[in-house]
Amino acid sequence: MLPLYDLRGRVAVVVDILRATSSIVTALASGVTHVFPVAELAECQALGAQHGCLTAAERDGRAAEGFDLGNSPFGYLDGVLPVRGRAVAISTTNGTQALRRSLAADAVVVGAFLNLGAVVEFARAQQKDVVVVCAGWKGKFCLEDTVFGGALAERLADSFDVSSSDATLAALHLWQQAKGDLHGYLLQSAHVRRLNSLEANKDFAFCLRVDEYPAVLPIWREDRLVALQHEVARTL
Amino acid sequence: MLPLYDLRGRVAVVVDILRATSSIVTALASGVTHVFPVAELAECQALGAQHGCLTAAERDGRAAEGFDLGNSPFGYLDGVLPVRGRAVAISTTNGTQALRRSLAADAVVVGAFLNLGAVVEFARAQQKDVVVVCAGWKGKFCLEDTVFGGALAERLADSFDVSSSDATLAALHLWQQAKGDLHGYLLQSAHVRRLNSLEANKDFAFCLRVDEYPAVLPIWREDRLVALQHEVARTL
């Protein structure tokens, strides 16, 4: 749907709750200096070889072979591989593509339940229209990204018009149905069932924690995502 | 989104509640023999001139100049223009395009709240996967078409799997929120507010009548939509 929206003059919030954007937020929260999102596995490996980045890659919901990390946020938390002070080149099925297609926006930031508060704060400070770019599953609608859009709309409803788009209204209504039991609600999702495994269930529960990292905002700068904590503080 | 879905082997239900598919159902229910859906206004006029069809056209929610009818279902009901036994060439902003893009399906039928029961009956008889093609507004999501998809999913849930697509689940949830007061719910829709006028409000209320024409199923045959009442009865 993205080509139907004009991103110029707007803030793009790119969302791939399971799991790309949740992992990117977790990476920056864990001391990763910056993230290179790339579309192709080969490009990801080349960045690793040339720049000494860690590499992280996933295809069809699984860790790809020959990379340092998969797409689990726990790769940045479990201490198996030291990540503090390192850069990471990351390639995922849906999230990376959504990010690279959003670069016409005035600002491109990464959203997840984990950093919802940071996204809200940034959007308020910018006072520009916000487009939530839901990565979805292979271009199709998915429930968890849409429900995140609804959560964001709810928090912004006091100072933004959230009723001028039917898509935003629908997302808001779905979030209102889901929020009492987000975990139970999203267990219905086809995408969640597709990821069903012990590792994925642990990831799933983690990715739904709202405001785990309320001050971590990954923002696009030139060719990479960096954390914006200080700039947000300065703007406000 | 349509190019992401393979329609072969499936039934496509094309929906443009406000107002193309509601008007097509009403036309066939009112004795119109067949409907030619066309993309361009000029093609619509040419069909009128060459084949003696009535012509109906709408652009951006308003009746287009120089045509017999606009896009209101009341054009077929109010008796101003006799329609029984006539063919109609109809061109609308979104509905016609959605219809013509759905022709790869095994069967293409037209759905509206007005003929929901007929769509349900047909889908059950076919026992093929169903794709609900929501025309939307200029390619974008709109609430009323999605909510119709949810109503259809609810009625088919006893014999179809409605949980394998997140889009279907979301539509079902929105319908469940909406159905207690469909009119009030859809008054929030951006599209509905865009159509807001005396004539449009009357159309709007009419287009939400569930099962007004429970036996009228417009189906695509060669180059036109015809009513399928008898064939449905034969299949069952």
TrEMBL record, chains A, B:
Its cofactor is Mg(2+). The keyword Magnesium applies. Its EC number is 3.1.3.71. The keyword Hydrolase applies. Keywords: Hydrolase, Magnesium. One of its GO terms (molecular function) is magnesium ion binding. It holds the Pfam family 2-ph_phosp. It catalyses: (2R)-O-phospho-3-sulfolactate + H2O = (2R)-3-sulfolactate + phosphate. It comes from the Bacteria. PANTHER family: 2-PHOSPHOSULFOLACTATE PHOSPHATASE-RELATED (PTHR37311:SF1). Belongs to the ComB family. This is Probable 2-phosphosulfolactate phosphatase. It comes from Hymenobacter oligotrophus.
